[in-house]
Design goal:
Structural class: alpha+beta
CATH class of the largest domain: Alpha Beta
Number of domains: 3
Largest sheet: 7 strands, mixed
Order of helices and strands: HHEEHHHHHEEEEHHHEHEHEEEEEEEE
Distance between the termini: 64 Å
Number of helices: 12
Radius of gyration: 32 Å
CATH topology of the largest domain: phage-related protein like fold
Number of strands: 16
Helix content: 25-40%
Strand order of the largest sheet: 7-16-12-8-11-10-9
Strand content: 15-25%
Amino acid sequence: MTLDDLIRQAEATFSRAVAERKAKQDALVALRAGIAGGDATITEQTVADAIAARDTAGTAVTAAEAELTKLRAEKTEDERLAHAARDIKPTDTRKPAYDEVARVGAEERQYAAHKERGYRDGKWARNSKPGAQFERDVAAAFLGDYEARDRLTQHMREERVERGEYLARAVGTGAFAGLTVPQYLTDMYAPKAAAMRPFADAINGHELPADGMTVNLSRITTSTSSDIQSAENAAVAEVDIDDTLLTISVQTNAGQQTLSRQAIERGTGVEAVTLDDLYRQHATRLDNTLLNQATNGLTNVATSVAYTDASPTAAEAYPKIIEALAGVEGAMLDMATGDNLAVMHSRRWYWLQNALSSSWPIMAQPGILPQMFGTNFATAYGRGLRGVLPNSTPVIVDNNIATNLGAGTNEDEIYLVDRTECHLWEDPNAPLFIRAEQTKAATLGVLLVLYSYFAYTHVRYAHSRKVAGTGLVTPAFTGA
């Protein structure tokens, strides 16, 4: 077990201790509130016991915090010593010749991005390939070009100064000087694009309880009654209130990757790149689940507003969006917050922007100029609200929305929700990371696992709506 593993265990212990102390304090507050409210069943001994339990939990918090602080201090000291060891240079009284010194920082790198043919003003020209000069020198060196060999040798000196800790692990790299790739190429790796979690980041987030595999909510499903009394002294209306338990499952979102020890130890940034990709896929799967999961996903719980049209236009689609928003508020009644969201695929958002019209809403809306079909905030994908519709409803663009729906498997949907009634519970420490070396030790493998627990619901109030139908087939950008 590594020091990092011990720190993660200590962090978990500290979090549990804090939660336990909070629970004890809440119980004590409840007892005192009961006394203030006249509850005669609460004795002084009960309060004293609650105080003692709270103090015991507080002592556990202090001990857990002290252990965590000690472990973190040890890690800081280890990192400081390791850094100091890397900075130690052999003492040599001989003064090297001027042309034997690699002056990284004082002189330009042998291979630098700005020296490439296709690199201008901080950008690569179209069809330009980073590292082309390096590759040409490698090929030329094998064919006997001495100048190319000199450039590669100089590059190797620079690598020993800047990345000596990596080269020290590679036996015999001096014999293959031309095969050490310039650093700026690895810095420019392109991660695989992912849809990420725009919807999950926009809805009502909560901290997932520390224990249990379900979240239970009480919903009042039978309300009391009130009516006009038929006559003096006649019975007034009475209906017994009743609730129904809404049980929400806690789910596990996880992914893994086994890397060879050679890839980690002899590569540059391999583990970090792999973890970044795992995180991106982890975030995408969570968001996709909230939208598309069978039974509970937004597409399966939202009431449909049909938009059927063989030649759809944005001007015709907009009234359907308003109809859906009316349904949201009609379902929520006095619980409606007005904090509504429209959630759509990027192709639908750009289709709405593509629309041209000589008509506009007859009612003015806050923040919307007359004759404008909404407002585009010009925000990048996944960075928050993309704009507002003509009635000021904010828009979230999410490319986890399916585009293969309907009989023609070419439709998407537009979702309308009260943001505060789309609930997502997540572990505040998520996602968690496991790095296991022992599991794959026999094959020199290192297992990386990324996981988190979460729960969600869109049906505390059954309010959500979706615009769906043939009017939302693959859009044609005609301006109509």
